[in-house]
């Protein structure tokens, strides 16, 4: 049966071995604790969505969606039909989830029993056939919080506050919460004298300011039909001195804005004031050049970044039109997504994990000159005391068994030794590997002894 | 933008709303606690596997695998090639995970750094394009424990013991752990005078005994070329009186077996003895007709069932050949998979969940005649005390806000009321909704007050 099948996971995807998972679980449980303390409740949706739920939501990134191939008779019918009509749409009508926001919008449109203000969090993987990179994978987890049903800026403030409290709790002290508003951006584009028909083009170019610099943006704007003069006017408004205070940015932009832009600036002023009483307050920075790629945002937008990564570790915003795209009621909504993988990458590089994140066995039970039945019965008694016990599975020399406890993949701090004498006396010899301390105690006292260190 | 997109999840798949998830999490956390106490460590693998990892492992069920359609240039190249050569294999080379056992075998073949005896658990969804039914879905979770690297029957005993301890802890008292051995089955087929070339056919028919009865099995055997006489001889060996003790079954089969069958019976005798010191002991039942469908089993096999369900709630066995199918080393292995969905279905029908499984807010903060900034700042102070707080997001009449706490999707046991007086005095009015008790306390005392009930 032997063949040459690769045993690696698919490109851009990962196996998580126990030590990886201990770190992932540490972060996920802290995210969940904060989200729940903020009153968010959990939601999970299928990994597979009907394709028409996803189409028309992600702009040109739609090509990155993983599609499920038709099966059985459906596939046969398609393949025996008109070969010239074959394309991805003919061959599939389901796909893997691309983000957690569109499934939430579908859920809100579907379930009338949800409360008016649905505060949900969702921690699940998503799939994008993107080029893999640092902290960027094809299967990766997002940790989303969203509030639907209200246009109140308290919703923006709560999702930002929750995300910042998560980051603070994990030990991040140097991140920036960039804040902007889609309507402010549009007003600034108008103020720069750029024709509204070029708005989308301008947004895409501006979004690259951090990556390609002023000249790069000006070149791109010019190639797309926006004059150097207008481009420079736009950058004059957007590209702020990083040391400028939020108050100074607000004051300097105010005179340049029309009514819609002024309203957006009012929103941002209030949002910044709301954030003052939260963990997000000292981290919030008005960044007029922030554009965020996704086409569904309609109001305030946010992005959290750290200097270590060229990309953001979180992003979000208001998307009042998305739920309505399912053809039912319009429902306003705002949300923020923490990128778990990028947080994990930065935490690993900075050594931010606690030293003790064990989920492995606390004790390896070694046995000699007793039956396997006696060994298993003793393991059961130790487990009944709440100790995480691995039982050495085969007869072997005692030294070899004890040595096995030190394998990095086992890393049991304790060894329990069961021999004829211990068995007869209902005792166990407990050896603490790091200190070398060893003592023989009553079996019923084992957990007290193990927990005493 | 409005269109007629269905907002239901795909057929056979489900959205899990917060109350569903509270139940799922309750069970999953109990499974995890027991598995870890038994010394198993967590593993997670990608939802997508390269197709050649999955092919040749599941027999005819392979057609139920969900495949990922090629994308971009690869898809274009295939579609513009020879149309007559188009089939599922030409259109895809990745697929969704079908179970958790084959990915484990891949992982064991891939990572040399794993310990020799890899005791892993894995709780993740799998996908099968099967006909949906009671407790049977197209996306569903499995909770697997496996031990690789040993031929010791202690491994069989440990996976069975862990699964039974999970079920006992969840409140199941009436399940049966059916135990059999592939080599015993093969020996009994020989003992019935059936030609070894018909072994596979006979196994498939025997597996249906519970569903189609004796006559059904005899008919199917006859249709497949096994005489009525041989079929009756086989059923005479396999179809035991349910009241027969394990010892009597062992004793009655022993004289009918050749050497290989005798060895299998020795294994089962030892396994049943080992299980005596575990939670599995009183539930274990030797069932010679148990066949288990999957082609990769090589030794003892198990199945856990309850009377409520026509299908099993867990299954497993020894599969010493699977890791070696990846063309590297042979590694013996044994495992057991708990079917989360079926457990949940039975628990719901029997009312086995604790009454209190809340993860929603403990307190809805209502506010009137104060600013939204003051409301948010107060919510933050309550959250800093560890209370799960939902903040009413908009100005509204107080009665309407309080009413919202009783929505089934909010179900907050407490309401906090913040008015001008409370704000000035740094107090909060706490109302316990069920009792109607209400008192105004110092804001700093809120969590003490909430926890006192």
Shape of chain A: elongated
Low-pLDDT segments, ≥5 res of chain A: none
Number of domains of chain A: 2
Most strands sheet of chain A: 8 strands, mixed
Class by helix and strand content of chain A? Answer: alpha+beta
Biggest interchain interface, per-side counts: A-B, 116 and 116 residues
Evaluate the radius of gyration of chain A.
28 Å
Question: What's the CATH architecture name of the largest domain in chain A?
Answer: 2-Layer Sandwich
Helix coverage percent of chain A = 25-40%
CATH level 1 class label of the largest domain in chain A: Alpha Beta
Structure description:
2 copies of one chain form a homodimer. Chain A is an alpha+beta fold and 453 residues long. Chain A folds into 2 domains: 18-350, BirA Bifunctional Protein, domain 2 (2-Layer Sandwich), CATH 3.30.930.10; 363-451, Rossmann fold, CATH 3.40.50. Chain A is built from 17 helices and 16 strands. Chain A has helices at 18-37, 51-54, 72-79, 88-91, 101-110, 153-170, 182-191, 199-206, 209-223, 228-238, 246-253, 259-275, 340-350, 372-384, 398-404, 420-424, 446-451, and strands at 41-42, 48-50, 67-68, 94-96, 118-127, 139-148, 176-181, 284-286, 300-305, 314-318, 333-339, 363-367, 389-391, 414-418, 427-432, 438-442. An 8-stranded mixed sheet of chain A has the order 1-5-6-11-10-9-7-8. Chain A has a 5-stranded mixed sheet with strand order 13-12-14-15-16, sandwiched between helices. In chain A, strand 9 (300-305) and strand 10 (314-318) form a beta hairpin. The model of chain A has no long low-confidence stretch (mean pLDDT 93). At the A-B interface, helix 1, strand 1, strand 2, strand 3 and helix 3 of A face helix 1, strand 1, strand 2, strand 3 and helix 3 of B.
């Amino acid at each position: 049966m032997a063949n040459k099948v690769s045993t690696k996971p698919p490109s851009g995807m990962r196996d998580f071995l126990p030590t990886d998972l201990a770190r992932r679980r540490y972060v996920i449980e802290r995210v969940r604790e904060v989200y729940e303390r903020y009153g968010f409740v959990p939601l999970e949706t299928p990994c597979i969505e009907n394709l028409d739920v996803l189409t028309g939501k992600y702009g040109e990134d739609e090509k990155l969606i993983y599609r499920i191939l038709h099966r059985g008779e459906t596939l046969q019918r398609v393949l025996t039909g008109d070969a010239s009509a074959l394309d991805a749409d003919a061959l599939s009508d389901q796909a893997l989830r691309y983000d957690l926001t569109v499934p939430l919008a579908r859920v809100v449109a579907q379930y009338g029993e949800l409360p008016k203000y649905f505060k949900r969090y969702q921690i699940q993987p998503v799939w994008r056939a993107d080029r893999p990179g640092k902290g960027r994978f094809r299967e990766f987890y997002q940790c989303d919080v969203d509030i639907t049903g209200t246009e109140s800026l308290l919703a923006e403030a709560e999702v930002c506050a929750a995300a910042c409290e998560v980051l603070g709790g994990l030990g991040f002290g140097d991140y920036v919460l960039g804040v902007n508003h889609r309507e402010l951006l549009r007003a600034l584009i108008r103020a720069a004298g750029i024709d509204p028909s070029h708005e989308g083009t301008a947004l895409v170019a501006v979004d690259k300011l951090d990556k390609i610099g002023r000249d790069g943006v000006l070149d791109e704007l010019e190639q797309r039909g926006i004059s150097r003069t207008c481009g420079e006017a736009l950058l004059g408004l957007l590209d702020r001195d990083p040391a400028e205070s939020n108050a100074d940015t607000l004051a300097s932009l105010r005179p340049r804005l029309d009514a819609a832009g002024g309203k957006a600036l009012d929103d941002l002023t209030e949002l910044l004031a709301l954030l003052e009483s939260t963990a997000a307050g000292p981290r919030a920075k008005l960044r007029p050049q922030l554009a965020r790629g996704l086409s569904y945002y309609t109001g305030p937008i946010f992005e959290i970044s750290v200097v270590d990564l060229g990309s953001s570790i979180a992003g979000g915003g208001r998307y009042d039109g998305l739920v309505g795209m399912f053809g039912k009621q319009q429902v306003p909504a705002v949300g923020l997504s923490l990128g778990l993988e990028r947080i994990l990458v930065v935490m690993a590089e900075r050594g931010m994990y606690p030293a003790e994140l064990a989920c492995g066995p606390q004790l390896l039970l070694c046995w000699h000159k007793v039956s396997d039945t006696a060994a298993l019965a003793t393991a059961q008694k130790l487990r009944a005391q709440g100790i995480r016990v691995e039982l050495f599975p085969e007869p072997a020399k005692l030294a070899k068994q004890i040595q096995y406890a030190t394998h990095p993949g086992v890393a049991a701090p304790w060894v329990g030794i069961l021999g004829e004498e211990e068995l007869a006396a209902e005792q166990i010899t407990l050896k603490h590997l790091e200190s070398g301390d060893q003592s023989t105690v009553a079996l019923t006292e084992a957990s007290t002894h193990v927990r005493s260190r």
